[in-house]
Write a structure and sequence with these properties.
The protein has 58 residues and is α+β, with helices and mostly antiparallel strands. The chain has one domain. Helices cover 22% and strands 31% of the residues. A four-stranded antiparallel sheet has the order 1-2-3-4. This is DUF397 domain-containing protein. InterPro entries: DUF397.
């Protein structure tokens, strides 16, 4: 479950090819763990849930 703190998936390895996500008011912000000060991607909650559903179906 996402919170307002950055969170990396427990399924992520130690290779550095990961993303972190955190909950905003009505969206989710995503960043690259290799560039934590770099740009972020913000998506709506519906799009985030759709992404997670699609990934889980793979």
């Amino acid at each position: 479950m996402l919170t307002r703190e950055w969170h990396k998936s427990s399924y992520s390895g130690h290779e550095g090819a990961c993303v972190e996500a955190r909950l905003l008011d009505a969206s989710v912000e995503v960043r690259d763990t290799k560039d934590r000060g770099g740009p972020t991607l913000t998506v709506g909650l519906a799009e985030w849930h759709r992404l997670l559903t699609d990934v889980a179906a793979e």
